Amino acid sequence: MFKGIGVSPGITIGSAFLVDRWKTRVEKTSIKKDETAREIARFKQAVELSKEQLCQIKEKISREIKDKTYTYIIDVHLLILEDQTLIDETTQLIKKERVSAEWALEQVLIHFASIFDGIDDEYLRERKSDVEHVGERIKKNLIGHKPKSIEEIKSDVVVIAHDLTPADTMLMHKGKVKGFATDLGGRTSHTAIMARSLEIPAVVALNNISSQVKTGDPIIVDGSEGVVIVKPSQKEFTKYLEKQRKFIYFEKELLKLRDLPAETLDGYLLELSANIEFPEEVHSIIEHGAEGVGLYRTEFLYLNRPTLPEEEEQQQVYKHLAEQLTPLTAVMRIMDFGGDKIDPHFNSEPETNPVLGLRAIRLALKREDLFRQQLSAILRASIYKNLRILFPLISGVNELRQAKQILNSVKADLRAKKIPFDEEIQVGVMIEVPSAAITADLLAKECDFFSIGTNDLIQYCIAIDRGNQHVAYLYEPLHPAVLRTIKSVISAANNEGIWVGMCGEMAGDPMCTMILLGLEIDELSMNAVSIPTVKRIIRSIRREEAAELTYHALSLTNAKEIERFVNQEMSRRFPNIFSIVRAEDRF
Ligand code: PEP
Ligand code: MG
Prior knowledge:
- This protein is α/β, with parallel strands linked by helices.
- It folds into three domains: 2-21 and 148-253, Phosphohistidine domain (Glucose Oxidase, domain 1); 33-143, Enzyme I, Chain A, domain 2, CATH 1.10.274; 264-578, TIM Barrel, CATH 3.20.20.
- The protein has 23 helices and 16 strands.
- The chain has helices at residues 36-64, 69-82, 84-97, 101-117, 122-126, 128-143, 166-172, 190-197, 234-255, 282-287, 311-325, 361-366, 368-380, 397-416, 434-438, 440-444, 454-462, 480-496, 513-518, 531-539, 543-555, 559-573, 575-581; strands at residues 2-3, 5-8, 11-19, 157-161, 177-182, 202-204, 218-222, 227-230, 271-276, 292-297, 329-333, 387-391, 426-431, 449-452, 499-502, 523-526.
- The protein has an eight-stranded mixed beta sheet. An eight-stranded parallel barrel has the order 9-10-11-12-13-14-15-16, surrounded by four helices.
- Strand 4, helix 7 (166-172) and strand 5 form a beta-alpha-beta unit.
- Helix 1 packs across helix 6 (128-143) and helix 13 crosses helix 14.
- The chain starts with a strand and ends in a 6-residue tail after the last helix.
- 46% of the residues are buried.
- Residues 392, 432, 453, 455-456 line the site of magnesium ion (MG).
């Protein structure tokens, strides 16, 4: 049994599929003299097979993509495979040292790497990785090991990996992945967020699960409790089957609230909307009772593809979303790249500190061409008057003014071309950088709404990487600093008469619902699956009760005390909900 962080609730019972991102390990193996010819033949076969594989890939890419840069990389790899030094040195070593082909190749690759390291020219030095990739391919072919990719999955499986990028998780969208478990990760990493959107039970931060599981092993992933069981006993199997049945039943019961408003017993209405990464999620969010899209992470339209989407394609996607939703609204968050969402089209140079680097609005302002294109696509799709624009990672008034200036110029261009758009389109600011929170009173004067992005706000406020499992214990949404910050942002918005929502994961955490209601937030946007539970809580309480709870929480001195107090109160009031969500595992 492995214990990690449950990041997407539910239970899945199935068969493991190991996505191997490690380098192939090779042991030194001696061979007999009469085995050398066989070993050399094995090595040459592996080289030939590698060539065939690369040619197939090249053919496929040339058919699908016009951009020749990609096939050029494959040509470089093919040339390395033709390199006589690589072939000769490996076969010589097999003969001379009487070692396996894998070991001989490994030694030659180490030798090559040291030569590359000594080269002064940076470009040439970086070609080292091409040689490494080619060497890795030959080694895998020698061992008979086919690297597994999520795209290849044909039957229902539970993916096990050292780590997964949001782009990997995106491939699960169309795949047959019924759950996943990883060594690394944190609750608000985008991989975790995607798992919740896709309603796939998931557990992260398991440290070494990827080295303990083999493809085909029977496995249970309990995303509610953060537990993974490999090769379960009959007793465990029966227990989790029953737990899975209860979970599904409870979810169905909650869905009965779908068409009812999120209204407290004393008539206070809150708006509950959903976060989406793909427009195709619209059907599911409405099924869960969302009153709109509170955050569309548009950057997912750009990931996992060889070329960037043109304005036309973007406009069609956004327009279709607007059509499907009307009369409900959608908040279109401008592309937010950087941090853990690395896109090769944007991040040309690796950054030492990507989370504090060129990300989100900073990147949009730098790549004004792409920013203008996206704004134009959104504006052209806004004719149903149900879209809003949201700028991510704004750090102060200047950045907001720059972004708005570009927006105004795009609007002027459209007007000049007589292209219709919503002249009254609302413009909002994500409050996720401490400097924005502190100057919220100034920002509120220059925008139409706020959306508090607690995933980043907590990360920057407490100075912990949201995706790092080693500091996950410090990720405390109920830290007094976080609560005070949220409180002051809400009051700055109220003072200026603009609406304020929250779209970070905290908004969908049922443990925080009463606190947020007590802080007088107007809207909560979350993963659709959380909406029924949050709604159930709102519909069972009075606003005054929430205000009292929040008042008391704010009088406590530290996160642990506040968590204990809120856990106690919530479990006492909602024993059914928190026996499923397991209060003690929330934070
Ligand atoms: C946030 O930071 O809270 C947020 C909603 O944006 P993202 O998770 O995409 O960074
Ligand atoms: Mg963010």
